[in-house]
């Protein structure tokens, strides 16, 4: 509830300034900071659930033969791990960052549609419950892979319908969140903040929100066609009725490839805030970063069929998608170059946010290179559906999205909670994450090159050693995230630690550092006026 301001900027009812307390504060939350906190806690919960599924997968693959689960349950684990991590962990976490930081960064009092904001968060709870409970439905969880390819989806039990319904709800939540972010950024910036003076995080989210609105309905269409094929006698994807399972792949990946960038563009934004702060320099090439982000978003719509080189497309099609995919690496490389140039001859210090940012740049670049290798149609045909692909997208999504989120949490946690995290614990978390991540996923490149297919519960003896190493690494990586929650997040939420100054990082710039730590319940009720450089508040 924000106080109503009259023409002179005076609040009419002062009692509205007090934060609501108890369960009502959270259930009826309309404050962007509370909703951001809810999103972040929800996504961490889903990260833990998805992580447990991943550890079950790795435990099964620790050695050849069937250890813990049968192949059918193994397929359910791989499917639900993917769905929960993508739609339950990564996307809501970035929306949580957006809710918390965008109004603070652009000098807005709150998000544009506060009640819709509340609704878009609470929609996620039933969807998540439906996804997780699908394991307990007749026939178990969906086992068609997270891509939900036909014809497998037409043969699944009732949990498939629950999964489709859950995806629809999550998609509606995403679209509402995106509308909110676009309207907030376009209409509620502080006087003097032009679009080209906005923080990079706000820019990347503006572009991401447009991507989401463009592609979520495409996913909705694909899964609705699946639903009608299952229950209403249509034959969109059923060859017996004149349908085509490959058409599903085209529709899905037209959503799926922009979706990959939806999960990485906000990460670019977070890194673009942190690197200049700890290099104590302005971001190198701000305008080129904005244009590169926009180029990535536009190009992401014309590369979808590089996921489909083995479906028998004509050579002309393969060449087009191969070159388009190679082209998208150019704006991505521009961003990497700009971050490195920002650090060049900067006065660098390596607190935990910067460690995660530099770790992100290093490991994400490796993921980018393997993506470039997979863009080559002749190579991709050999590596399709092997562990090489698994290694590639985990380098991009875990070392990309997840590392950037950790960087963002450490960077903004003092502003959120008012206390400083323990630097030692942060560094332990970083080094454990980086080392165990590489122990887990680097061997998968070799497994894939040697021909080990993904989504298999068993494998021949020659793949045993690398799989054992990967499984040990996965356990270490999982424990590092539990350590992060217990040793960093919980103490900060309880207010334990040194009191955070208003601006804990001396190189940090932006409006979020102009408010006290912790950020008060209501901020910027009178919009701040910016000076010509748009970094300082006047008066």
UniProtKB/TrEMBL annotation:
Main location: membrane
Pfam families in the record: COX1 (PF00115)
Domain Cytochrome oxidase subunit I profile per the UniProt entry, residue ranges: 17-531
BP GO annotations: electron transport coupled proton transport; oxidative phosphorylation; respiratory electron transport chain
Keyword Metal-binding: yes
Subcellular localization, as worded in the UniProt entry: Cell membrane; Membrane
Cited CDD domains: Cyt_c_Oxidase_I (cd01663)
One Gene Ontology MF term: cytochrome-c oxidase activity
Pathway: Energy metabolism; oxidative phosphorylation
Keywords: Cell membrane, Copper, Electron transport, Heme, Iron, Membrane, Metal-binding, Respiratory chain, Translocase, Transmembrane, Transmembrane helix, Transport
E.C. numbers: 7.1.1.9
InterPro entries tied to this protein: Cyt_c_oxase-like_su1_dom, Cyt_c_oxase-like_su1_sf, Cyt_C_Oxase_1, Cyt_c_Oxase_su1_BS, Cyt_c_oxase_su1_dom, Cyt_c_oxidase_su1_bac
Any one GO CC term of the record: plasma membrane
Transmembrane segments: 38-59, 79-100, 121-144, 164-188, 200-227, 247-271, 283-307, 319-341, 353-379, 391-413, 428-448, 468-493
SUPFAM superfamilies: Cytochrome c oxidase subunit I-like (SSF81442)
Entry membrane topology: Multi-pass membrane protein
Signal peptide: none
NCBIfam families according to UniProt: CtaD_CoxA
Family affiliation: Belongs to the heme-copper respiratory oxidase family.
Name of the protein this chain belongs to: Cytochrome c oxidase subunit 1
Species name: Acidovorax soli
């Amino acid at each position: 509830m924000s106080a109503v301001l009259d023409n002179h900027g005076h609040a009419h009812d002062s009692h509205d300034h007090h934060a609501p307390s108890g369960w009502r504060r959270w259930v009826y939350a309309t404050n962007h900071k509370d909703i951001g906190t809810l999103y972040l806690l929800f996504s961490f919960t889903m990260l833990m659930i998805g992580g447990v599924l991943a550890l079950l997968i790795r435990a099964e693959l620790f050695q050849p033969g069937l250890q813990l689960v049968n192949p059918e349950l193994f397929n359910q684990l791989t499917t639900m791990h993917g769905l929960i991590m993508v739609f339950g962990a990564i996307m809501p976490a970035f929306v949580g960052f957006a809710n918390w930081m965008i109004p603070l960064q652009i000098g807005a009092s709150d998000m544009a549609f506060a009640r819709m904001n509340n609704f878009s968060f609470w929609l996620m709870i039933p969807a998540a419950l439906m996804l997780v409970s699908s394991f307990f439905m007749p026939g178990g969880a969906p086992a068609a892979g997270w891509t939900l390819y036909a014809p497998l989806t037409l043969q699944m039990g009732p949990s498939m319908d629950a999964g489709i319904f859950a995806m629809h709800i999550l998609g509606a939540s995403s679209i509402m969140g995106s509308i909110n972010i676009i309207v907030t950024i376009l209409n509620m910036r502080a006087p003097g903040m032009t679009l080209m003076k906005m923080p990079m995080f706000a820019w990347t989210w503006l572009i991401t929100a447009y991507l989401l609105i463009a592609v979520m309905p495409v996913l909705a269409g694909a899964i609705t066609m699946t639903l009608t094929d299952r229950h209403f006698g249509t034959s969109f994807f059923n060859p017996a009725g004149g349908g085509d399972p490959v058409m599903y792949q085209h529709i899905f990946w037209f959503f799926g490839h922009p979706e990959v960038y939806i999960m990485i563009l906000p990460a670019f934004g977070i890194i673009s805030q942190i690197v200049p702060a700890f290099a104590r320099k302005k971001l190198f090439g701000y305008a080129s970063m904005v244009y590169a982000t926009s180029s990535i978003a536009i190009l992401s719509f014309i590369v979808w069929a590089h996921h489909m080189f083995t479906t028998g497309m004509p050579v002309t099609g393969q060449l087009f998608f191969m070159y388009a995919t190679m082209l998208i690496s150019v704006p991505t490389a521009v961003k990497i170059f700009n971050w490195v140039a920002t650090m060049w001859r900067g006065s660098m210090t390596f607190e935990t946010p910067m460690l995660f940012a530099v770790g992100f740049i290093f490991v994400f670049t490796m993921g980018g290179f393997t993506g470039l290798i997979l863009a080559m149609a002749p190579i991709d045909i050999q590596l399709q559906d092997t562990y090489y692909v698994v290694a590639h997208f985990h380098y991009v999504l875990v070392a990309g999205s997840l590392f950037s989120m950790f960087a963002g949490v450490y960077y903004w946690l003092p502003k959120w909670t008012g206390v400083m995290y323990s630097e030692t614990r942060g560094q332990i978390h970083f080094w454990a994450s980086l080392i165990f991540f590489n122990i887990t996923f680097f061997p998968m490149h070799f497994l894939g090159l040697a021909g080990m297919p993904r989504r298999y519960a068993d494998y021949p003896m020659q793949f045993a050693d690398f799989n054992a190493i990967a499984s040990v690494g996965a356990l270490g990586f999982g424990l590092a995230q539990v350590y992060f929650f217990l040793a960093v997040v919980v103490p900060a939420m309880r207010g334990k630690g040194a009191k955070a100054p208003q601006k804990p990082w001396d190189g940090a710039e932006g409006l979020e550092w102009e408010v006290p730590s912790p950020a008060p319940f209501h901020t910027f009720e009178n919009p701040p006026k910016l000076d010509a450089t748009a970094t300082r508040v006047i008066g």
